[in-house]
């Protein structure tokens, strides 16, 4: 049946509009179809009311309208009156509601999926809105000044016992202050081996330049030795503390935007003295070499003791301080090995015994004797009080202010900053910001941290070789980082938990070298008394050595050989294979400590860990 | 006699399926058949017949097609599907069991 032209319908229901809807004959214009139906006005009105109220898609409305037109037409054709067909039909509102409900059931699966997904998204957004509102309304409450506690620990004792004021003078006299840095310290003598002029040895052509410089800086060296011997660190942390010293060349440069600049966070304080301590130790090390060449044992002992004093600053501090202290200790051990190899005669027996006693006082069998994690705990607890609200019962939620603090820390830590992929970095920042309200509660974060730290603390009492490749802390941290949800939820832990396994390995390396030097001193004393080295280390005990040290990688006593008239004390190294005192190699040359590895990675390193003697010394 | 809506809700779909078993029918034809074959007992409000048909279609028990009748009128015709036939068999058995049970109780056939 063709339909007559309807100007209004033709304008509004254009072929193009129909085409877009998949129809080309204007049949979607259900109103026009009703208007044009040969039905009484009351029936047409009823159809329009019902169809309009269904609020269905146009195509569905069209189908319903067509069916109702047919229905009323059939009823009229069956002899019913206009009033009867309208009355028989029933309530338009109920009909529309039932038709809508039934027609919606007929819609495609994709529509139903979209509907439920949309509803779920709306519900989630509403929930997220509640969380966000809470996030912005809560404020952190800073109740304890951890920086003040640190200052009290670092700066105990009278002014005359504070090291930093004297070390500061020494650094200025030696040209190590940033404001007046001597270009001498920036000169390289061996780019390939990455050595500076201050690290020159008598075998280097630059050695005379180093000795001349040392001669010119006698006063600075004396100040350095005196400052190092003072028992208290004497470095005031925090705003306007020792790190803010324009005369020295340190300008106030806060690391983090602090909520309360007058009371900065532990993670935000600056510790520039640690780097300086390393530089000062290099100067002492150079002077010890010079003293050895000059056959001045007393001066060499003074320099070595000053290095051990500087290394002492690690105590009661942070792990970063511990690591700097360990590296200074290892620097001193290297000098002792060098002197005992090249010119042992510069040390008297008494000096050697004194040195051995001094070294024996550094640490014990396990890392726990050298480092503790209390500083890391304080640092984390300080971060928590600055980022979380406090409900007074040990719990709280992450605050917007805290999230900003964490974001900044994450950016500084490189967690979301990828300079090579700025788009990814930006996306990372956005995701991080949006997900901050989902970070776990104060109690949950502290529980996780405390549990991991307790595990770490317990592991400090255990030699690394007893781990049997087990590393519950790393396993847990990797699990957190492998899960997007856990990474967000436990972000503070993932960001700030210290690398304890690595710390333990560093301490074990240092303790291994320390024990190697202790054996080396005992061997030298034995040789002086007996004219030759012993055939076994047991001959040293108990007169020269309390006991033979344990091989820190392989277990059992450390290995000992005399090769070409020189003693070698060594550990079997990560591959657990006795290579007869042959050092593992790195970049084509012997590297005495490269085999000091535990776990599966160490098994691939062929060669021994040389603790004392050997070609490299 | 007017059947209560709760009873109609269970009986209506089965009645419609039963009517369609004989062959496809359009809306008003079903209205008339229900009224005539049930002596008006199952005559449902016409406003509820179409939602009922759409629901049966959503369940896959009936299918529909649009066709132009001899009088030139466009109608939608409904027919029973295979799934609908199975449903009708099952529903018929249930109704028979129900009727038998009601009979034993003296509700029917006294």
Structure description:
The complex is a heterodimer of chains A (617) and B (110). Chain A is mainly alpha-helical. Chain A is 54% helix and 4% strand. The N terminus of chain A is likely disordered. By secondary structure, chain B is α+β, with helices and mostly antiparallel strands. In chain B, strand 2 and strand 3 form a beta hairpin. In chain B, helix 1 crosses helix 4. The two termini of chain B are 19 Å apart. Classes of the chains: A mainly alpha (617), B alpha+beta (110).
What is the gist of this entry?
Chain A is mostly helical and 617 residues long. Chain A is built from 24 helices and 7 strands.
Assign the structural class of chain B, choosing from mainly alpha, mainly beta, alpha/beta, alpha+beta, or little secondary structure. alpha+beta
The helix fraction of chain A, in percent, is 40-55%
Shape of chain A: elongated
Rounded radius of gyration of chain A (Å): 40 Å
- Strand arrangement in the largest pleated sheet of chain A: 3-4-7
Strand order of the largest sheet of chain B: 1-3-2
The proportion of strand residues of chain B reads 5-15%
Unreliable stretches covering 5 or more consecutive residues of chain B? none
> What ranges of chain A have pLDDT less than 50 throughout 5 or more consecutive residues?
1-11, 415-419
What's the topology here?
The complex is a heterodimer of chains A (617) and B (110).
Chain A: H1 7-12, H2 15-21, H3 30-36, H4 41-54, H5 58-77, H6 82-89, H7 92-105, H8 109-137, H9 146-154, H10 163-174, E1 188-190, E2 195-196, H11 207-216, H12 218-229, H13 272-293, H14 297-311, H15 319-342, H16 349-360, H17 374-387, H18 400-413, H19 422-435, H20 442-460, H21 472-482, H22 484-489, H23 491-496, H24 500-530, E3 559-563, E4 566-571, E5 585-586, E6 589-590, E7 609-613
Antiparallel strand pairs in A: 1-2, 3-4, 4-7, 5-6
Helix pairs in contact in A: 3-5, 4-5, 4-7, 10-12, 12-14, 13-14, 13-15, 14-15, 14-16, 15-24, 16-24, 17-20
Chain B: H1 5-21, E1 25-26, H2 27-37, H3 46-58, E2 62-68, E3 74-80, H4 82-104
Antiparallel strand pairs in B: 1-3, 2-3
Helix pairs in contact in B: 1-4
């Amino acid at each position: 049946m063709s339909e007559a032209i309807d100007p209004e319908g033709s304008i509004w229901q254009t072929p193009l509009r129909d085409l877009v809807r998949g129809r080309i004959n204007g049949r979607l214009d259900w109103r026009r179809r009703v208007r044009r139906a040969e039905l009484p006005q009351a029936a047409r009105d009823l159809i329009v009311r019902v169809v309009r109220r269904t609020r269905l898609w146009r195509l569905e409305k069209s189908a319903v309208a067509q069916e109702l037109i047919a229905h009323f037409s059939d009823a009229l054709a069956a002899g019913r009156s206009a009033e009867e067909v309208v009355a028989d039909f029933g309530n338009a509102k109920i009909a529309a509601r039932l038709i809508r409900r039934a027609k919606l059931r007929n819609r495609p699966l994709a529509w139903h999926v979209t509907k439920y997904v949309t509803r779920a998204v709306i519900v989630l957004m509403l929930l997220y809105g509640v969380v966000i509102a809470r996030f912005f309304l809560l404020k952190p409450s800073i109740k304890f000044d951890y920086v003040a506690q640190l200052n009290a620990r670092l700066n105990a004792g009278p002014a005359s016992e504070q090291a930093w004021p004297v070390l500061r003078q020494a650094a200025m006299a030696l040209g190590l202050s940033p404001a007046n840095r001597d270009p001498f310290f920036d000169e390289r003598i061996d780019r390939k081996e990455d050595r500076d002029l201050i690290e020159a040895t008598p075998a280097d052509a630059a050695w005379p330049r180093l000795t001349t410089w040392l001669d010119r800086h006698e006063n600075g060296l004396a100040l350095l030795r005196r400052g190092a011997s003072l028992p208290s660190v004497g470095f005031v942390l925090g705003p306007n503390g020792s790190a803010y010293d324009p005369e020295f060349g340190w300008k106030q440069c806060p690391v983090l935007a602090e909520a309360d600049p007058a009371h900065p966070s532990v993670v935000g304080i600056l510790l520039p003295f640690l780097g300086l301590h390393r530089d000062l130790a290099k100067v002492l090390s150079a002077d010890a070499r010079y003293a050895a060449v000059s056959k001045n044992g007393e001066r060499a002992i003074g320099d070595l003791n000053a290095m051990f004093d500087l290394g002492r600053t690690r105590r009661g501090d942070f792990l970063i301080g511990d690591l700097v202290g360990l590296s200074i200790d290892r620097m001193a051990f290297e000098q002792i090995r060098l002197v005992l190899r090249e010119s042992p005669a510069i040390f008297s027996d008494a000096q050697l015994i004194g040195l051995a006693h001094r070294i024996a006082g550094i640490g014990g069998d396990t890392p726990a004797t050298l480092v503790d994690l209390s500083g890391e705990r304080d640092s984390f607890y300080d971060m928590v009080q600055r980022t979380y609200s406090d409900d007074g019962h040990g719990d709280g939620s992450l605050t917007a202010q805290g999230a900003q603090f964490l974001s900044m820390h994450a950016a500084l830590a490189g967690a979301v900053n990828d300079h090579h992929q700025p788009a990814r970095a930006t996306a990372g920042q956005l995701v991080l910001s949006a997900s901050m309200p989902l970070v776990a509660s104060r109690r949950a974060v502290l529980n996780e941290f405390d549990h991991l730290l307790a595990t770490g603390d317990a592991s400090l009492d255990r030699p690394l070789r007893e781990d049997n490749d087990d590393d519950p802390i790393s396993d847990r941290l990797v699990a957190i980082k492998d899960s997007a949800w856990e990474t967000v939820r436990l972000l503070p832990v993932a960001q700030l938990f210290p690398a304890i396994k690595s710390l333990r390995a560093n301490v074990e390396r240092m303790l291994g070298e320390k024990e190697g030097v202790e054996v080396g001193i005992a061997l030298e004393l034995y040789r002086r008394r007996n004219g030759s080295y012993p055939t076994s280390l047991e001959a040293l005990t108990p007169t020269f050595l309390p006991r033979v040290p344990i091989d820190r990688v392989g277990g059992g006593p450390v290995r000992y050989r005399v090769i070409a008239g020189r003693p070698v004390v060594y550990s079997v190294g990560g591959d657990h294979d006795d290579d007869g005192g042959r050092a593992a190699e790195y970049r084509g040359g012997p590297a005495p400590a490269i085999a000091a590895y535990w776990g599966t990675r160490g098994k691939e390193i062929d060669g021994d860990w040389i603790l004392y003697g050997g070609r490299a010394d | 006699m007017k059947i209560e809506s709760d009873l109609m809700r269970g009986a209506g779909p089965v009645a419609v399926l039963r009517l369609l078993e004989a062959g496809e029918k359009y809306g008003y034809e079903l209205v008339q058949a229900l009224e005539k074959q049930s002596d008006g007992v199952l005559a449902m409000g016409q406003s509820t017949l179409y939602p009922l048909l759409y629901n049966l279609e959503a369940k896959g028990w009936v299918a529909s097609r649009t066709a132009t009748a001899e009088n030139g009128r466009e109608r939608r015709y409904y027919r029973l599907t295979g799934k609908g036939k199975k449903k009708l068999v099952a529903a018929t058995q249930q109704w028979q069991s129900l009727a038998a049970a009601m009979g034993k109780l003296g509700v029917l056939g006294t």
